[in-house]
Amino acid sequence: MTFPLHDVLLLLKQEVQAYRVPVVDLIAVQTNDPFKILMATLLSARTKDEVTAAAVRRLFARAGTVEELSRLTTEELEQLIYPVGFYRNKARFLRKLPAVLQEQFNGAVPQDIDSLLTLPGVGRKTANLVLAVAFGKPAICVDTHVHRLMNIWGVVKTETPLQTEMALQQILPESSWAELNAILVAFGQGTCTPVRPHCDCCLIANQCPRNGVTPRAVKAVNKEMDMQQATDKKFISWNVNGVRASLKNGLLDVLRDFDADIVALQEIKAQPEQLPASLQNIDGYHAFWNPAKKKGYAGTAVLSKTAPLQIWYGLDEPRFDEEGRVLTLEFSDFYFINVYAPNAQPELKRLAFKQDFNLALFAYMDRLARSKSLVLCGDLNVAHKEIDLTNPKANVNNPGFSRQERAWMDSITEAGYIDTFRKFDASPGRYTWWSYRFNARAKNIGWRIDYFIVDESSDARVVDAAIHEEVAGSDHCPVSINFR
Question: Other C-beta atoms within 10 Å of 233: how many?
């Protein structure tokens, strides 16, 4: 059966009106300045919308014109746009942009694709998006979402976005070109996500051939379960790779959306006195910070809606505790341990240190689990099984997948502790960390190294576990459990 592309696009156009608007289109609503739209489009490449939006706000505050941009150094631009993807390259492109615009185009953004392609950092996708959004000209901007969806639907069978663009020019009337990207980016971010698309609630599920798609698993629920879930506690764990950077990337919005009872953060990279007021006083939470002695390094924190009975900082071992790697909260019926395990480092240079840490942590877990339920979470810096990373054979004996580190995880599970995510989901391709290099997150080339672990007697108290790949703002994504 031929896929009804025209009818589907009309349906999706209505559907995505309630979705979050792609950042470049949102900026176009706020300003019709082609220069600002060009800068925003450059920053948006290989970057989540919320990260782009924050960077654009900072950049526009300093450089709203070609002349203002020309006054900024590369170092200043890097600071303004960090942590967008490839921010150093993009800063260099932005630094060169004013001179090219002034010398070749009288300071204005050109309005044809060949000229746009001569600008620093501008590829075909960016050029087409600027033509369509800034100038309203017929252009098909094919990004990863457009390319992916058109192949899922069987409209095209192409290997590259350029091939998709050329094919769509023959299929679609020019009148539909400009809005195609906005529709499919919103739909690709909101429903037909790159990982585990939401086919269960997709309005075109009956028409979609689902080529190459693995939908998310949907659990059956009933009213009794719904009532019980209202009393469950939600716990979140997230390596934020710098809490101050994550604040700029929407951390408070993420916390508000999750509305979790306890939030564990790792790799905070900040001392309490370095934190802005918005982090020192988060509405509804008691905050506990365990920074590393070394500034800008490691550290853990826990935010809890309920005040704990007691708090322990570390494992009572100075060489581990000075790095702020363990933070424990005691509540009436469970212990909550937040862990940021050491990285074994290239050539396993720090493996011995990590092994000592792991043994001390294991003994600590056993000691606490004797008296009440134990919930341990955090970045353990190890992928346990081959299913937990994309390229296991290429990473044998690399840090995070060494025989010794995996053996420790074996000893944990053999002792009866539960890897909660694997209790509910045994599927491959579910990861919590992706390198910033090689567009790894978009390609889902990742590792599952962030965990929630509970003691054996508490197994029944864990009623759900999840990985939240859709949440950006760090090279890790949050993981969660519902705890009864």
Answer: 18
